[in-house]
Amino acid sequence: MADPLRSRSTPGRVLVALLGVVALMGCAPGPATPPTLPSATAGPGVPSSPSPPNHADLTRLLDRLAATDDEPGWRALIDSVDPHFATTSLWLRDNLAGLDLRLEPGSRIRALTAQRQELLGTEAFVQEVRARWSVPGTAPAEHTLWLTLTPGARGLRLAGITDGPCPTDAGSGPLPIWWLESVRIIRQGEVAVLAARSQDPDAWLPGLVQAREAVARRVPTTEPLVAQLPSTAGGFERVLGVRQGSHRLVAAAAWPFGDAAQLVVNPEAGGATQGEARQVLLTHEAVHVAAGSVRGQGPLWLTEGYADLVALADHPAVAAAHEANLADDQRRHGIADALVTNAELRPDNARVHAHYQRAWITVRVLDHGPDSRPAPGGGVADRVHAAVLTGTPLDDALAAEGWSTGTLTEAVSAELRRLVG
């Protein structure tokens, strides 16, 4: 995507029915919680500029939060005046025990609402924190978190994690699943899954392992594949850091979190995450993670078509269904005489499925070389895709393989005519 949201909303991976909107942490309760108090915004009687904490005290608390996994030591860091957070803090401790984590102070602080101050005290405040975290042995992800802190005789203590900006606020952003709900972390070889307790990560692990293996055959990668599996569609959007309701139809997304990219699954995706469709979905998104195409280099027809080229290679029945659907579309609307545009691949485009299939056909034609037969040594699409992602202009990358935009367009149109019959 031009922003990272672009095509990880892969329309071929989009749900076919509207899903209910689930409340998100920070503005409404998370899983299995009572109603929370309003999020932090300045109002009558609320100080607009809380006093900055002592930097040494703050750093000391953050270091201890990141390193403490024994219950007595953890409880000493928690202000339990809010009974809901006293419970939340226990699963948070368990989550952190499975991670490599580093917390550093950010520069911003926020005031609490008057209602929250009444509960936590007038000196309580919300502190920005930069988190760098990973499942051990995987690439570290980066997030901005907001911690509600209270000062006291024993120093700062953690009093909440849901008083930060709402998803619609300018200061909002993605949040890791382990900050939103209790998780189980499992690992097999080069795949790790962080799953909500209501989900079964063992049901996803084999498909993710298979996806990474399929990708590794074409995309050089040494990084493990990390997947997050929230409990709700609302949690899925909160992990992505997108507007509530905007991605409710997206089945899965490859998403950048700092320097690392991870795969996030929408648990309410229905049929899009069943059977062969699930495997194609996981492999497609794993291509984006491994290749680094989540950051938006190159035209979408290339990045999305290439991901489908890899994902469909082991699924001839699904590929045949794509061909049939595309042929029907071209009969009704006419043979396309141009390469697929980014606008055609927007999720709200009425023909988005066919346009994604046309992008796949485009890359398949590209991969065969300009003579319409497998190029010596193969890998034309691999090389063009990799070159564009590393900054080579598309025209130059095509020319290196004997293609031009014009000749590729003509060859794709010929292939579409063949499919139409």
TrEMBL record:
<feature type="region of interest" description="Disordered">
    <location>
        <begin position="35"/>
        <end position="56"/>
    </location>
</feature>
<protein>
    <submittedName>
        <fullName>Uncharacterized protein</fullName>
    </submittedName>
</protein>
